[in-house]
């Protein structure tokens, strides 16, 4: 009997520890180690000895022993496969604003390793957000625009930048253990590129362990398609960390967004997550799937050391924005240091139908000035009553980030997992 009691006690202890670790990014070890870089400004890279330019129309392999410079707009076309060896360095050219575009039907196999990631970065000595274009992957999975076809133009060749189709299971290749640094160039009279643009991409594409840091546009932008995304990291983006639109069906898991109070777009501000069904309503086919994002074990935080002062100064806005007709199902996630945590589009009526489209369960809202509001409305009693229901297991607190996370200010190896025992707040919204 004593032995059985000991086993039960051990089981309960382990279960309790696991439960405490379940919110936000998870892992028995810090999965950010080895392949990420939180000080890319100070990283020394070698000089390129190979040039990538024009069209890549046949199967091509980039080798680790070389350093490549991406000059101008480079397109992978003609159903070709671009394979990149682990540890390969590709440098986006500042003068020509180098951009890599994997066109519809082509593939990229960038399969790095934890100890040997593939890196895309800037060639400037003083690197800044927006130094070069970024990486664009275009596929033939469904989108919700009329005709099921979109075009990612900006300053690209319109004949090579269409995306969308009928194949939700299409395969655009592999991006795994990849870093993209200082991308997101500004296009005159238009918009900005993103670190990684994923448009009309299908669910056979493998997207894991990808870090985008210091992007001048969004870190990750999803335009339609059907994708699984795991262990993504967005760090100090100027625009949004994760943008979803055009009917994307996305399952985002165990991923991180770190914002700064002092980095934000002048256009409409910046958020950790923007979930919309469309950009232009008159181009949207409402008979098709509208945007659905299922997000679990996500950590979104403002890493300021004085969040309350930044909120009071108006430097901080919401972490998550959900647009009209879009659906977001978020579970076991952490939102720390925002004002408020979540904002719903002003056109979204607070009723049973819409509240079932926007779900928050087992959440930890921390250091936020309010949790869930409707845009332009300071009264959130209905939303508090709904999301504060004990059945959803949402909790809130006002705990300092240093105490809440394991070690977020470690310059070399930050750890953004929750500290054990830190979810001790009472349930409900504030």
UniProtKB/TrEMBL annotation:
The protein, known as: T9SS C-terminal target domain-containing protein
């Amino acid at each position: 009997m004593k032995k059985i009691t000991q086993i039960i006690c051990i089981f309960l202890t382990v279960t309790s520890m696991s439960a405490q670790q379940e919110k936000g990014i998870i892992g028995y070890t810090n999965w950010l180690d080895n392949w990420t870089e939180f000080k890319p400004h100070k990283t020394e890279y070698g000089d390129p000895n190979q040039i990538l330019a024009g069209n890549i129309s046949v199967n091509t392999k980039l080798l680790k022993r070389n350093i490549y410079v991406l000059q101008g707009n480079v397109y992978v076309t003609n159903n070709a496969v671009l394979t990149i060896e682990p540890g390969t360095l590709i440098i986006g050219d500042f003068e020509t604003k180098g951009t890599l575009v994997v066109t519809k039907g082509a593939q990229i196999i960038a399969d790095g390793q934890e100890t040997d990631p593939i890196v895309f970065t800037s060639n400037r000595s003083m690197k800044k957000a927006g130094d070069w274009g970024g990486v664009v992957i275009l596929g033939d999975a469904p989108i919700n625009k009329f005709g099921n076809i979109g075009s990612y133009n900006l300053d690209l060749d319109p004949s090579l930048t269409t995306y969308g189709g009928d194949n939700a299971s299409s395969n655009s290749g592999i991006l795994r253990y990849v870093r993209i640094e200082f991308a997101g160039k500004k296009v005159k009279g238009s918009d900005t590129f993103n670190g990684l643009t994923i448009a009309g991409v299908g669910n056979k594409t493998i997207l894991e362990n990808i870090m985008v840091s210091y992007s001048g546009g969004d870190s990750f932008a999803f335009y339609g398609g059907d994708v699984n995304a795991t262990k993504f990291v967005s760090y100090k983006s100027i625009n949004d960390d994760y943008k979803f639109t055009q009917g994307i069906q996305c399952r985002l898991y165990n991923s991180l967004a770190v914002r700064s109070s002092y980095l934000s777009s002048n256009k409409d501000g910046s958020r950790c997550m923007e979930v919309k069904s469309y950009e232009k309503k008159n181009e949207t086919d409402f008979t098709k799937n509208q945007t659905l994002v299922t997000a679990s074990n996500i950590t979104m935080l403002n890493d300021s050391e004085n969040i309350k002062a930044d909120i009071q100064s108006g430097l901080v806005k919401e972490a998550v924005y959900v647009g009209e007709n879009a659906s977001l199902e978020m579970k076991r996630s952490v939102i720390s240091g925002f004002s408020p945590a979540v904002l719903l589009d002003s056109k979204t009526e607070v009723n049973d139908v819409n509240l079932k489209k926007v779900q928050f369960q087992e959440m930890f809202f921390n250091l936020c000035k309010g949790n869930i509001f409707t845009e332009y409305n300071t009264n959130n009693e209905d939303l508090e009553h709904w999301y504060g229901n004990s059945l959803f297991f949402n909790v809130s607190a006002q705990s300092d980030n240093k105490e809440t996370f394991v070690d977020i200010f470690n310059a070399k190896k930050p750890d953004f997992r929750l500290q054990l025992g830190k979810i001790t707040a009472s349930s409900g919204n504030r």
